[in-house]
Fold this sequence. Notes:
The chain has one domain. 77% of the residues lie in helices and 0% in strands. The chain has helices at residues 3-21, 26-29, 34-55, 65-91, 94-101, 104-111, 122-138, 147-173, 178-193, 196-199, 206-232, 236-242, 246-258, 264-286.
Amino acid sequence: xxxxxxxxxxxxxxxxxxxxxxxxxxxxxxxxxxxxxxxxxxxxxxxxxxxxxxxxxxxxxxxxxxxxxxxxxxxxxxxxxxxxxxxxxxxxxxxxxxxxxxxxxxxxxxxxxxxxxxxxxxxxxxxxxxxxxxxxxxxxxxxxxxxxxxxxxxxxxxxxxxxxxxxxxxxxxxxxxxxxxxxxxxxxxxxxxxxxxxxxxxxxxxxxxxxxxxxxxxxxxxxxxxxxxxxxxxxxxxxxxxxxxxxxxxxxxxxxxxxxxxxxxxxxxxxxxxxxxxxxxxxxxxxx
Length: 288
């Protein structure tokens, strides 16, 4: 792969990270349940991607049954990832949700050998530990049984389902167009979450609907399609560790938009995460 191609992939990946980092803001901006927010975003995401694929005259489903099942299964994991993620932000805080999510690069490094013929290297483990230390510094002291503890548990579950989704998608679907993969995942997510409409009223507030539409189209359909496209062109552990910069982006966005000023934990932990991401970037560009 040429240096120019690597630079393009890296920039696309970082742009996707900035957009995805903005997702957590909607947990505070939208006055609906996490179930309804997640259903709404997956509904609008799948509808937008369907129209995009039809406009490009591309197929919306895969020809192989096994691949359709992989798309459906990874979409269910994605649905639970988003529910856990937003619930973590509600029980604890947006910062806790984002920071605990970024245990997923550590999980990916050690889960990847079960899906691909790779072995963790010493540097992989070292960078994963560095990311873990950075995330650990960002998380304040907590006690079991309270909302903060529950928020952290939900954040870790969000990370685990996200790591599994990425592994399954890359293992079985990486030879397909990213928009097609994301459509399948969004559609199955919306399908599995649709029963929420029976238990909760569909939002009629213009502000809530507008924000959920924005979340589903631009911050989900477009951002995650770009993320999947970049992920398919990177080693999965590289994508996982490079994406560890997302907490830094999220903290900055929360500061600028929500007025949530970062403390010394965010600064110190974010610095360690940036070091790990920078080192992995250098290793990626040197790799042939």
